């Protein structure tokens, strides 16, 4: 299934030779990316300082689009009906191939923490933070794109660069709408980036879950909760019964499924029987059919809860979704070779001290940061021993064109994820070095795609004859579903004034940690256990 309007490259390009300029240009690109280490640091630190949640990434949008406009990219804001979304495009010559470069930008609620501090020390108590590390990926793409653009102009290399953000990835509510809006209709290959603690890529079926995000809204009737509760019909009772009903049903579902919920509306005040209430579910399963089946179970439980409470299941909103990803083997092979060339960053003692400090703080094995890349390229056409897990809506993009995800090492192993602890490295030399390594791999892979037509032709051959041979992409979102751009607006409004005090000013400070007055690294002092007469630690 091609992206709307997309046309794969002609098969006749499959035998085209490698451009003899390629290796020389790759060597130049490595030097040019390295020379932009300061720019990588500034982008990473700036986006960290905004600490914006999904659908509210407006400071990030303003900063990035201003930067890219100055570099000659054509900017379009508010794409796909998402005000905080944008695209930045630049073309040369024929404009083919078109490479899209994406990375997420949103943060995590209640994940605020000072960077470089190896224990819980929030910048804004209760405030959002980059507890997933999404502040780092745009630096990878932007610096790689600027370098490759300069080489394209100088050497007259045909192609198009399309940069875009993953909006509201934590709500899984952005990329399916971008696909539906035709943002990728001319794209040949998508190179996506996501923060990790290693440098690598894989191909084939991902370990991620497909996901459908749905809010169930119930409607009852109010009454005086003490004077005449029998006159009311509690929508909150329906919400609570749906949650309880799901817990009983959970025992009889596949072990691989993941499902979780929060109550978004539980009424106004205790002395009024709630006339409205809602519960928000994430349903996750292996693929589209199984996830839709899980959703159908959820709808039955909701209908039962409404019947028991004599309320009405008023609305079921689909707020977001994502297919489980499938990634291009030919593109991954090209990128894996570049990973071997670049290798892991050189961590110093300070980097390792921060990593081991937070690992000890959380009771994880304190093995520090990884220092070697995987020599083998991993992947499989079908899921292997799949037991469920997290999700990423890059899956929707991957089922519409050849796509890969580059993992780059800007975070620390052994952390819980979606947590304040995952924010502490994200405006430190760990994040800066990891993003710089990712930018190098990204730039080299872009050159492979532009100067080796066989890579693109092979990618589309794999896409058509392997990946989508027996699978047809069907979006979870329905035609009437619109991006829920109101999400997180209330949280950001609550904390915006406090957050603004901490925006990074690179004209005055070399790094964000310098602006905050943080000594790197700051970790808890290690307590040495007293020893007995025999030299052993006392228990």
From TrEMBL:
By its UniProt entry, which Gene3D superfamilies does this protein fall under?
3.30.70.360, Zn peptidases
UniProt keyword annotations, A-Z: Hydrolase
Top-level taxon in the UniProt lineage: Bacteria
GO MF annotations in UniProt? dipeptidase activity; para-aminobenzoyl-glutamate hydrolase activity
Q: Provide a GO CC annotation, any one.
A: cytoplasm
A Gene Ontology biological process noted in the UniProt record is: folic acid catabolic process
Question: How is this protein named in the record?
Answer: Amidohydrolase
Taxonomic lineage is: Bacteria, Pseudomonadati, Gemmatimonadota, Gemmatimonadia, Gemmatimonadales
